[in-house]
Design a protein that fits this description.
In chain A, 5% of the residues lie in helices and 54% in strands. Chain A has a single domain, classed as monomeric porin ompg (Porin, Beta Barrel), CATH 2.40.160.40. In chain A, strands 1-2-3-4-5-6-7-8-9-12-13-14 form a twelve-stranded antiparallel β-barrel. Chain A is mainly beta. Chain A contains one helix and 14 strands. Chain B has five helices and 33 strands. In chain B, strands 1, 10, 11, 13, 15, 16, 17 and 19 form an eight-stranded mixed beta sheet that branches. Chain B has 509 residues and is mostly beta strands. Classes of the chains: A mainly beta (271), B mainly beta (509). Chains A and B meet through strand 6 of A and strand 10 and strand 11 of B.
Chain lengths: 271, 509
């Protein structure tokens, strides 16, 4: 889940947000940007295959005011295009185009990221899937206080019968912006799901940002989101995920609706 | 002759040390690596008498079989109930097979631990003669029970090697002796029939397989040399499949136990006719085999002669299927006989064919149209026979989660709950295989074979098999003349499918 989060725990951001928060009690303490809301599985895209995903996230109830110069998230529609190319049976490279749309602003380019990823090949026969993703890129200051940042995301998952779980204990670091001094941020996410049928999988996704690993934020300043979500397995070429997220803490957008639609394209002959 | 490993940098990964042993090129060669039995004491004095007795019993039995007279040379199904007598148990065995754990070198950089027969992969080739009784001692040195199935043979239940029929397993650390009279002639094989369940080191994921070559007495052999080619996939692992359930994939493959580039080449001379006996001994994968610049004249499928010896560019072999094909060596060079699908070839499933006087980098199969139709080998006319009994066998699956293997069902039930299929001796039964699943199934019937009479609704005749691939969403019809009483196991030969319920018993009423 990429949210350009360091801004959340920037003292400057918190201070800037405080007056608005006092004036509007239900408003989160600071801005939050949801561009890709997804718990990664360990599997990588197959070689000679390109995965194109569209992440559509609508904040139904979020930050309504400008905070620290950043655009509000309330009623913002974030569209992210993710293109992932499989390199071999243990690596892939992903590329993101982030956009945001709000009333009167049209579609705005937010930034781009690159995400190389490697995994333990399935032929190693490990009991769990293990993968390591790293992501870096730029985003405009209007949408995130830190314009350059980096993330490393270990991924562990397992499918057993009808059950699936995945854990992504991600670490994030700002490279340019007010949060550089904050060091490394801990943003875990977890998914547990159950195959009701071959086509329908339902589950819970949990996303959090606990703040700096050296100074965990107070609960109300942490981001906590829970998404009941459904995956539709209609075809091996398609990936469809839909969820509605609840953010119970003050620092979290309260309601977000997310949808991921992905399509795999296989190139060249399979021979 | 080019040594193994000299092509390795070209066709695989790294050069290797020379290993294995070569052979001298001679007329009418008959080769697979180390084919000699360790113990072979044929009862020559009684062999002919037994053969004649068997032949007369077969003739008597065939008289009971309706419509059988019009069928080709050998009977279409076992000529029982009077199976020929077994050799006396006190006689020394003709062969001895030791099941043991070994470390096997697929290539110098790829060593695997597996169980195998007599410390080699494939197990030593057993050369027997149709109608001549054979006794085989089997020693199980593993820490779990095992069983050896004589695939393609019309033999009694006790010898067949399937515990579901009633054959006995060989306890860990024990030995047993099986005795049977080989029938029919042709390329057959022997292999473990133990379940693997989720253990990818057991069953046909292991190295427990070998060629059983049943020669026809007096067959002059219209070829210059014959070669035995045994395919196998290695390093299995579970992976998500396109249809949502787990499937088994592989890290490497081999021909005759070696990865491409690490075995001695098959040496040929221009103009030679080479008879290739090819067996897919893999657990789950069908394979496509091609030899660039050459065509295969298919003369037998599953050991049984075909009605039409069609020429094809590529061979398809489902798990447990066998093809015997003549190749006229008329394109000098150095070639790879190997998987036509690049991912399998790169995984090692290939061997080098080297013409005398030619050296250099071997050329592998290029883009080949993967096309196979059993009807190409059938007779011109469809079957003229009307079945006495029609037996529908509907294959379906039940989803058990993306992290599980599907449960497989025959007529709505999964083994061991499947209903027995009733056969009546002497009658022609039309087996209607209806595959309503999204997987292809290489279905196999023990102790019998059947004649294919329609594929996807297209009638045919003249192709007799004991394994047939029923492609996803299609129907195949096959005629079985019930002539070998006793339980006969019917199952998908894909190890993960039979482990997940794709089995049923055929029983005689």
């Amino acid at each position: 889940m990429k949210r350009f989060l360091p801004a959340l725990f920037s003292p400057a951001a918190v201070l800037a947000a405080l007056p608005a928060a006092i004036l509007a009690a239900a408003i989160p303490a600071c801005a939050q940007n949801n561009y890709e809301i997804q718990v990664y599985g360990a599997e990588t895209v197959a070689p000679r295959t390109t995965m194109v995903e569209l992440h559509s996230n609508f904040t139904a109830d979020g930050q309504a005011n400008f905070v620290d110069g950043m655009e509000p998230t309330n009623h913002a529609e974030h569209e992210t295009i993710e293109i992932t190319q499989g390199i071999n049976d243990w690596s892939e490279l992903g590329f993101y185009i982030f956009t945001s749309e709000r009333d009167g602003q049209g579609v705005q380019w937010v930034g781009d990221h690159l995400r190389p990823r490697v995994r333990a090949p399935a032929k190693w026969g490990w009991p769990v899937g293990v993968s390591l993703s790293t992501e870096f890129g730029y985003q405009r200051a209007r949408y995130a206080p830190d314009t350059w940042d980096w993330e490393i995301r270990p991924i562990v998952d397992q499918t057993s019968g009808r059950w699936y779980w995945a854990v992504n204990p991600a670490l994030e670091r700002a490279w340019h912006g007010p949060d550089v001094k904050l060091g490394i941020d801990f943003s875990p996410s977890v998914k547990v799901s159950y195959d009701f049928t071959k086509q329908i999988t339902g589950g819970i996704e949990y996303y959090a940002d606990y703040g700096s690993i050296t100074s965990i934020a107070a609960l109300h300043n942490q981001q906590q989101q829970i998404f009941p979500a459904i995956d539709l397995n209609v075809s091996p070429d398609w990936e469809i995920n839909f969820g509605v997220g609840v953010g119970p803490t003050a620092a979290t957008d309260h309601w977000i609706v997310k949808c991921i639609i992905g399509r795999r394209f296989t190139w060249g002959k399979k021979q | 002759m080019t040594a193994p490993g000299e092509w390795a940098s070209a066709v695989c990964a790294t050069p290797s040390d020379v290993h294995g042993k070569g052979f001298e090129l001679s007329d009418n060669q008959d080769e697979m690596h180390d084919p000699k039995p360790n113990v072979r004491q044929a009862a020559a004095s009684t062999g002919r008498r037994r053969f004649l007795r068997q032949a007369s019993l077969a003739a008597a039995s065939m008289a009971l079989v309706r419509h059988g007279a019009a069928w080709p040379a050998s009977p279409v199904s076992p000529a029982s109930p009077a199976s020929p007598p077994s050799p006396p148990q006190s006689a020394a065995p003709d062969y001895r097979i030791e099941i043991q754990e070994i470390e096997w070198e697929l290539s110098p950089r790829k060593k695997i631990r597996t169980s195998a027969y007599d410390g080699q992969i494939p197990g030593r080739r057993l050369d027997v003669t149709e109608g001549k009784p054979v006794a085989i001692e089997i020693v199980n040195r593993l820490d779990h029970p095992e069983i050896v199935h004589w695939h393609g043979q019309w033999i009694p239940v006790e010898a067949d090697g399937a515990m579901e029929e009633g054959s006995l397993m060989i306890p860990a650390g024990s030995s047993t002796r099986v005795a049977f009279t080989p029938r029919p002639a042709g390329l057959h094989w022997y292999h473990t029939h133990a379940m693997a369940e989720r253990d990818l080191k057991r069953g046909l994921y292991s190295g427990q397989f070998g060629v059983l070559h049943v020669a026809t007495p007096g067959d002059p052999g219209r070829y210059d040399q014959q070669q035995f080619i045994v395919l196998h996939d290695w390093e299995p692992f579970y992976s998500p499949s396109d249809d949502g359930s787990l499937m088994v994939m592989y890290g490497s493959g081999s021909i005759n136990g070696r990865m491409l580039g690490y075995d001695w080449p098959i040496q040929v001379r221009e103009g030679q006719r080479v008879l290739f006996h090819i067996l897919n001994a893999g657990a789950t994968e069908p394979h496509w085999l091609a030899l660039p610049g050459h065509r295969f004249q298919v003369i037998a499928l599953d050991g049984r002669p075909v009605a039409t010896q069609a020429d094809v560019e590529v061979l398809r072999l489902g798990p447990a299927e066998r093809v015997s094909a003549l190749v006229t060596m008329n394109t000098p060079g150095v070639w790879i006989l190997g998987e036509a699908q690049q991912q399998f070839l790169k995984a090692g499933m290939g061997t080098v064919i080297e013409y005398a006087g030619h050296t250099g980098k071997p050329l592998g199969p290029k883009a080949v149209k993967l096309q196979w139709d059993y009807r190409a080998f059938g007779a011109a006319a469809p079957t003229r026979h009307t079945p006495d009994v029609i037996l529908p066998l509907v294959f379906t699956s039940r989803f058990r989660g993306h992290g599980a293997l599907d449960e497989w069902r025959i007529n709505g039930k999964s083994w061991p709950a499947t209903d027995p299929i009733q056969l009546t001796q002497g009658l022609r039964h039309r087996l209607v295989f209806v595959n309503r699943s999204s997987d292809d199934h290489p279905v196999h019937l023990h102790r019998h074979n059947f004649e294919l009479v329609s594929i996807r609704g297209n009638p045919m005749s003249g192709v007799f098999k004991d394994v047939v691939i029923v492609e996803a969403g299609t129907t195949v019809e096959a005629d079985l003349i019930a002539a070998n009483p006793g339980n006969s196991l019917f199952h998908c030969h894909q190890q993960d499918h039979m482990d997940a319920g794709f089995m049923a018993l055929f029983r005689y009423t």
